[in-house]
Amino acid sequence: TPTESHSATEIQTALNLVLNSKNIGFIDLPHRTELWNQSEKLGSEIRNHYDHLIVVGIGGSSMGPRALAEFSGNTNISFLDNVDSIETENVLKKIHTNEKIAWLFISKSGTTIEVLWTIELIQQRYFELGKKLWPHTFYITELTDNSLHNLSRQHKRPCLEIPLDVGGRFSVLSPVGLVVASFLDLDLDQIKSGAMNALGDTKNLTTMCHQFLSSFERAESITLFWFYCSRLRWFGGWLQQLWAESLGKKTDRQGLPAFPFSTPMTSIGACDQHSILQQVVDGPKNKFVCVFRFKDIERKSMSIHQPIFKETQSMKGKQFGDLLKAEALATQKGLHLSNVSTMLYEFEHFNPETLGYLFM
Questions:
Q1: 3-17, pLDDT tens digit by residue?
Q2: How many CB atoms are closer than 10 A to CB 207?
Q3: For residues 141-163, b (16+ Cβ closer than 10 Å) or e, as one string?
Q4: What SS3 state is found at 111?
Q5: 3-state class of 32 per DSSP?
Q6: CA-CA distance, 167 to 152, in Å (whole number)?
Q7: Are the C-beta atoms of residues 278 and 239 closer than 8 Å to each other?
Q8: What pTM value is reported for the model?
Q9: CA 89, CA 112: separation in Å to the nearest integer?
Q10: Do the Cβ atoms of 157 and 137 come closer than 8 Å?
């Protein structure tokens, strides 16, 4: 139950100030039609001419695209977002086995050293193999005088814009995520519709703001997002960055000590019931657990016709979705009975529209 120090009216007023702000670019991204059209066109072009896409980016330039790739289930995409030599070498091996590889280089500033260093390594490998890299490269960055933008111009390659008023961690609904979504053949109109629905859902936005502010006031230092869907692991990583970098400040806008916000964590369904649930239940009561359910996943009709183990006899005639639903509800109820603060999110469908809603 929220505390009373913030009234719903006060939160609604503050929320309206944010939603109506002209200085926060990511809120306006669903209305920037030209960026959506450019992204859809470039993503389709890459999909039609190449068998595999390798994305080179880091942080906000990678985790949003990774979340989209995981959602799609498409395996024709790889990521280089950590200067890990073994992982990098494994990805670079694709150059030897696949001639139809496209490279998408992403950096908000265009000066990210890990991205530029990786590009140099890729170019060196192509040179050693007697191959040409640049005709197969595509770029996303600020359209300013920066190294990545200048590279695209030098080789006369397509470069789409990350708007100056959109921070890197907020850029998933810009070409950063949309080009990848288009390559993956996801429906951009559905993603946009979901984002627009979120902007208009002021009742639920107000409720969530109220709950989170109350959680902070209860000194719940960890906010745990628990997704009962395996395809949201990278969305969880994206959300962790958004939460941690946006709220984890040393001072506020007046230069005073910042309000002590929470540390974000993410978990996945039944898997993490067997890894961290005991600590959440029996450990310090300093956590706010947000449980996410998706009803179409719970309605999936996969089942065992004739159980062979004594432990599974009670599941005869039941669906896998029935078990996942029971585990989600039981986890939330068990946490509530153990005096752990919880909030339940229920979605009818897990589709591109839902993902667009969650991103916004």
A1: 556 788 889 899 999
A2: 15
A3: bbeeebbbbebbeeeebbbbbbb
A4: coil
A5: coil
A6: 21
A7: no
A8: 0.94
A9: 20
A10: yes
